[in-house]
Amino acid sequence: MARSMVTFFISPRSWFRGRMKCTLLIHTSSVYQPPPKHSTVENYEGLDPQRLLNLLNSCTNFEQMKQLHCQMVTSGLSYTIPTSVKLIEISSSSSSRMDYASLVFREVENPDTHLCNSMIRANAHLNLHEEAIFAYIKMHRQSILPDHYTFPILLKSCAHLSLLDLGMSTHGAILKLGLDSNVFTDTALVYMYCSCKCLDSARQVFDQMPERNSVSWNAMITGYTHNRRFMEALDLFSRMCAWKIGVSEVTVVSALSACAHLGALNQGKWVHSFIKQNEIKLNVFVGTALIDMYAKCGSITESEKVFQAMKRKNTFTWNAMISGLAMNGHGEAAVELFSRMLEENIKPDGVTFLAILCACCHQGLVDEGKEFMIRMEKEFALRPNIEHYGCMVDLLGRAGSLDEAMKLINSMPIKPDAAIWRALLAACRVHGNMELSELAIGNLLELEPNKGENYILLANLLVRSRKWDKVAEVRKTMTERRIKKVPGCSSIEVDDVIYEFTVGDKFDGVEWDKIDSMLGEMSRELRLAGHVAGTEIVSYDIEEEEKESSLIYHSEKVAIAFGLLRTLPGTVIRIVKNLRVCNDCHSSIKLFSQIYERDITVRDRNRFHHFSGGTCSCRDYW
Fold first, then answer.
1. Which of the ends of the chain has fewer CB neighbours closer than 10 A, N or C?
2. pLDDT tens, 414-458?
3. Sign of CA dihedral 144, 145, 148, 151
4. Domain 385-485 has CATH 2.10.25
5. Where's the DYW domain (predicted)?
């Protein structure tokens, strides 16, 4: 039949059916070819809804389904709910075919809850979350009541899109319909609230659940971990283990991540022991989490043991090990491990090169860092991002190559961010380049006008130049704009409990009088050892007090005093600090490790410092 002879149907309800008929008329030879006689769709005579459904259930691919659908349309069969559901399920096997599924959905005159759920589920499964929500809205407009199967899927889409208002509205609908006692619906609510950073609401739902399964516990623990409420994550993990709820690989990975961020080595070791005792599979995810935990707790030897014991490793595993070596001051070992990675034909990614550049930065391996930056693009076709350029600026700046660092900044294909200028400014402070310092701080204030750290950096420069009147202006500006600096905070794990110390606090819950007395003793020991306190500058990475008497109350020193009081002689004292350790604390802790004959490990926001016998693993290069 000639193409010009085709007559199109114009009825909205019949548009899709007409389109299918026209397709058959125009392209009968190419679109509808009856399959071979041995096929499951070999005979269409006497086709009825039940037989059609049976044939659809036996379809093995999308093309067979289309042939059956064409026959259904040309035979005038109505769209029953079961056949429509099956057509949608087969069509939604690929996101490119969802338009087809949508057309089927529109053809059904009286859709029910089951059909609407299928459409919502199909879109959500393909990460078409906006479409899933639209399908629910249409369902609501047609007064089709949702059921237990509707809300878990819908809440998943709300979570992925961070639509808190819609999620809360859905929660209200669940309560109104009396569907809130379903474990799957309640678990989806916990997941949605966690994804939208409403942890208290998530915990309220969790606590009120009449029934919880392992997925419910995992959702809450993972939510705490992803939102950096690590202590609560570990507390919930302990309760889960005590109640003998089924702990899976997902659970222990979240617990290990919490231990890693807190630097809670003892609790991390307990989780590792739990994994062994309960025969939880040491797969690539659990193994990588263990490597990361031990590395971030400063026990790089244990990281290497886990790494060697793993039978299967992926890129993330190698990245965790290389990064761990880098942050613990083993730059040469990190470079060597990178070579092994290539020998085993593991393809590096951008995170690998970021880790290896950090290793070069911590060890001052300038030539090696330049080589890796070149290889990244030429050999592995990986385009450097802002983090890679930041590492290179830091590496060049620390080495005193400030002009080269500035040249790199000007040649970057990406606009420099605050981290780039902060790295340059730190190098200028070390090497006394005031001209570049002013350029860097100007750009910082432009990019982050409300960040307190930048104003402290500006004050540092003015103090160095003895411009006290301008220092006062900076402090006044901060007060007027209510800009505050992040206070220094240090934590220490003692007897499986994490204690946090923040500058200026009186540390409720611990024996402050004894700590204060210990700090006085530590201060006297420093003077006897010839230590001269660094009070000449107010730095962004130290607390705000300027006098020698206040320096002893820096959070890491308070944590060390607590550790000396509460741990046995010879025990390693492990500290985690949220800011970069200051010069005075660094030189003081070196002396503490010698005076008290204690190994002290401090993890600041940049790297690890392993103090022993009066020296530091960073070799005063940080």
1. N
2. 999 999 999 998 888 778 888 888 899 889 889 988 888 888 877
3. positive
4. no
5. 530-622
